[in-house]
Amino acid sequence: PEAGFVWAGLSAVQIERRVTPDQSVGLLQAASDRRHTQAMIELGLCYQSGRWVKQDRAKAEELWTRAAAIGSREAQIRLATISVAHGELLDSSLQVLRHAFEEGSVLAQVALGYCYEKGLGVVGNKGEASRLYRDASKRGSENAYLALRRMHDEIRPQEREFEMEE
Questions:
Q1: How confident is the prediction along the chain (166 residues), in pLDDT tens digits per residue?
Q2: What ranges in 15-105 are assigned the alpha helix state H?
Q3: Three-class secondary structure of residue 120 per DSSP
Q4: Which of 135, 136, 151, 165 is the S-S candidate for 144 at Cβ 3.0 to 4.6 Å?
């Protein structure tokens, strides 16, 4: 399972070009069937994003639920993040995100930023959302950077002199 997971990963970043996308999905599926949690998470990401497979949120959640059931912290964070993204925030999700953020998860940090931005499960606080996004952006999160930019775009005047260049 480990070798299949690694081989699919090398294909995903285009280091290994002899493996087709269909073969990569097969390698991840085979590793997932053998309870390889990292493969479950990666295959779930494929289904969430539609990379290599037809986009299917339910399939992604199913894979992450299986991984979480056998102890994957990353899968728990992904499930909590998906609940936030779809406005289905549960107290348990917020608790998972807070704990994961305290342990250094950038993904949890971005999800908490979103909670503060939208007032999901917490009192809305754009300043706190901005701080969380900015810090996560400094740590390399493109999603945090895009969220911070979106927040700034919402309050930026429409005149040409204030337009941001790409």
A1: 999 999 999 999 999 889 999 999 999 999 999 999 999 999 999 999 999 999 999 999 999 999 999 999 999 999 999 998 888 767 889 999 999 999 999 999 999 999 999 999 899 999 999 999 999 999 999 999 999 999 998 988 877 777 767 6
A2: 21-33, 37-49, 57-69, 73-85, 91-102
A3: coil
A4: 136
Q: In angstroms, what is the C-alpha Rg of the chain?
A: 18
Residue 72 · residue 100 · CB < 8 Å:
no
Model pTM score:
0.85
List phi, psi (to 5°) of 131. Answer: -60, -45
Kindly state the greatest CA–CA separation across the chain. 57
Distance CA 114, CA 44 (A): 21
Q: Is 9 exposed, middle or buried (0-12, 13-18, 19+ CB in 10 A)?
A: middle
